[in-house]
Write a structure and sequence with these properties.
- By secondary structure, this protein is of the alpha+beta class.
- It folds into two domains: 11-84, Phosphoribosyl-AMP cyclohydrolase (Ubiquitin-like (UB roll)); 111-202, MazG-like (Helix Hairpins).
- Helices cover 42% and strands 18% of the residues.
- It has six helices and six strands; from the N terminus they run ββαββββααααα.
- Strands 2-1-6-5 form a four-stranded mixed beta sheet, with helices on one face.
- A hairpin with a 4-residue loop joins β3 (44-47) and β4.
- α2 packs across α5 and α4 (143-162) packs antiparallel against α5 (166-186).
- The two termini are 33 Å apart.
């Protein structure tokens, strides 16, 4: 089926994180930007305000590696699934859809979104090492201290599991997941790498 571009030669594009399924942004493509996206494996869009092509992340470094491109039933809208490097929004938020008009107050609905947002906070702390940040202190202390904290939290999670208090288990599990994410970030292992490995467990 041929894609249906509008009278301006444009087609709307929804960009989605391949791992968390979070919608990152909405933009437009024309035939040329779609062709460049297919050729390069990274997203290219058409700016209606500048009347020009633009390569996502060209100046910021926050590029999008294309995993899959789908089109809808009317062939007049694209869904592009990507591996996002850095953040998608120019405001510094991971997704352009960070504000809520209706629904949960914080805009977070599932574990995937929570992990994605927490991961971005951890990466930000690693890069900027702000004073007074516990996460930044962990990175400053080095991999041995981070690994030690993961071990401690794992033991505390096991102990909590032996007790009757579910709240304690939830708390300790959250501590374990957080410190494990810090460990992964310290070793330059992305959440996408873990997602790919976890997919093998489906078999």
């Amino acid at each position: 089926m041929e894609l249906k571009f509008d009278e301006r030669g444009l087609i709307p594009v929804v960009v989605q994180d391949i791992n968390t399924k979070e919608v990152l942004m909405v933009a437009y493509m024309n035939e040329e930007s779609l062709k460049k996206s297919l050729e390069t494996g990274q997203t290219w869009f058409y700016s209606r305000s500048r009347n020009a092509l633009w390569h996502k992340g060209e100046t910021s470094g926050n590029t999008q590696e294309i995993v899959e491109i789908r089109y809808d039933c009317d062939a007049d809208c694209l869904l592009v699934k990507v591996k996002q490097k850095g953040v998608a929004c120019h405001t510094g938020n991971y997704s352009c859809f960070y504000r809520t008009l209706m629904g949960p107050e914080n805009g977070i609905e599932n574990i995937g979104e929570v992990l994605a947002k927490l991961w971005q906070v951890i990466i930000n702390r690693k890069e900027k090492l702000p004073e007074g940040s516990y996460t930044a202190k962990l990175f400053t202390n080095g991999i041995d201290k981070i690994a030690q904290k993961v071990g401690e939290e794992a033991v505390e999670t096991v102990i909590a599991a032996k007790n009757e208090d579910k709240g304690e288990l939830i708390y300790e599990t959250s501590d374990l997941v957080y410190h494990l994410l810090v460990l992964l970030a310290a070793k330059d292992i992305a959440l996408g790498d873990i997602a790919e490995e976890l997919k093998k467990r489906f078999k």
